[in-house]
From TrEMBL:
It is an enzyme of class 4 (lyase). This is phosphoribosylaminoimidazole carboxylase. Its EC number is 4.1.1.21. The lineage of its organism: Eukaryota, Fungi, Dikarya, Basidiomycota, Agaricomycotina. It comes from Hericium alpestre. Signal peptide: none annotated. Residues 223-234 have a biased composition (Low complexity). Residues 220-241 are annotated as: Disordered. Keywords: Membrane, Transmembrane, Transmembrane helix. One of its GO terms (molecular function) is phosphoribosylaminoimidazole carboxylase activity. The chain crosses the membrane at residues 12-38, 50-71, 132-154, 174-194, 270-296, 308-329. Pathway: Purine metabolism; IMP biosynthesis via de novo pathway; 5-amino-1-(5-phospho-D-ribosyl)imidazole-4-carboxylate from 5-amino-1-(5-phospho-D-ribosyl)imidazole (carboxylase route): step 1/1.
Length: 362
């Protein structure tokens, strides 16, 4: 019997009951927070939370049983046991069913917790079965040692403690394997989270992608220049130069450009096209909405900016040209002059820049 130790078994059991009850109270608080998060905050992913709820309930059950078994053992030793050796004699019976069940309870908690840790690694590493299989080998080895520990303790039938010669190798192996598994799995989780955060930081600090701005008119220049930023590649195009527009749109992806402020002709030719309509008031907003959303088949719609009267004129002229040939010639001459004006404005943008007053006047 263990009576000559500096910390007798009867004193150790009473201290253990007090400390375990204290930490069990802390555990109840964290368990309540865990269940609140799983049942209330995780409703959107209900099909994923049930495995976590089951694991949490199992751990709660085994933790409660451990406290209950310890209390029962103390009551047996100090209240109900009347045999030889008193409380120390009863507590020293290593094969007593309460002692064995406490060991089984500890083994179950450890196995479930280690399995959940492996599952976390499996999820964090993109459901990688290789990661899960490697860690599971260690996990299975630990459970084998735990099974031998329970079996030897149940069949030993002698007055001894857990430091018995037959038990020590398996208990030491169990604790060592559990420690190694937790260190490896936790280190892998920390490394994965750190690498993801580092990648996100690199993405934030990396140069922004180029954005190609397709303008139908130089009247869009003030709004587009205010939004282009320092990392955009800007090119001015017009519907009057369709060939130039097609050539630019087809080559935009080659240098990282993406269509912004695009017309319908450009959208099928770039991988990402986002329409942007600069507007200065309610009338322009309505014009932009009508021009984009009301062009169904069989319903001709013409939208003209209130500030660009020349467009209204060019729209009316083809209607009036029926039987008036000289109007057709004049309209073609006007359109040709507007077409030749585009390269001049392009060259001015490249030489002078976006913010120069002369560009905005042209």
């Amino acid at each position: 019997m263990a009576t000559d130790t500096a910390f007798p078994i009867d004193v150790a059991q009473i201290v253990a009951l007090f400390l375990e009850s204290l930490f069990y109270g802390f555990y109840l608080v964290t368990f309540g927070m865990c269940m609140y998060a799983l049942l209330s905050l995780g409703r959107k992913n209900g099909y994923r939370r049930w495995p976590l709820i089951v694991v949490a309930l199992l751990l709660f059950t085994f933790a409660t049983l451990d406290v209950a078994f310890l209390l029962r053992h103390v009551l047996d030793a100090f209240i109900w046991y009347k045999g030889p050796g008193g409380a120390i004699g009863e507590l020293s019976n290593i094969s007593y069913w309460v002692n064995v069940m406490k060991t089984v309870d500890y083994v179950a908690q450890t196995s479930i917790a280690d399995g959940m840790l492996i599952y976390r690694c499996y999820i964090i590493y993109g459901r990688s079965w290789k990661i899960a299989a490697g860690l599971s080998v260690i996990w299975v080895a630990g459970m084998i040692c735990e099974a031998f520990t329970c079996y030897i303790e149940f069949t030993l039938h002698t007055d001894t403690l857990l430091n018995a010669a037959r038990l020590t190798p398996f208990i030491t192996s169990t604790l060592t394997i559990t420690l190694v598994l937790n260190l490896i799995a936790t280190s892998m989780i920390v490394y994965k989270i750190w690498s993801l955060q580092r990648r996100d930081r690199l993405r934030v600090t990396s140069p922004a992608p180029l954005v190609g701005i397709v303008m139908r008119s130089d009247s869009d220049l003030p709004s587009c220049s205010a939004r282009r930023g320092s990392s955009t590649a800007s090119r001015a195009h017009d519907q009057r130069t369709p060939d130039r527009l097609v050539e630019y749109a087809r080559s935009a992806d080659d240098y990282g450009g993406r269509g912004r402020r695009t017309s319908r002709a450009v959208r099928p030719m770039v991988s990402l096209a986002v329409s942007y309509h600069a507007n200065a008031g309610t009338l322009l907003t309505c014009a932009a909405l009508c021009g984009v959303h009301v062009l169904q088949r069989g319903i001709p719609v013409a939208v003209v900016d209130i500030k660009t009267g020349i467009n209204a004129g060019l729209l009316v002229v083809p209607i009036l040209t029926v039987g008036i040939p000289w109007l057709v010639a004049n309209m073609e001459a006007c359109i040709k002059s507007l077409k030749t004006d585009v390269p001049r404005k392009m060259q001015m943008l490249e030489e002078i820049g976006w913010d120069d007053p002369e560009v905005k006047k042209s």
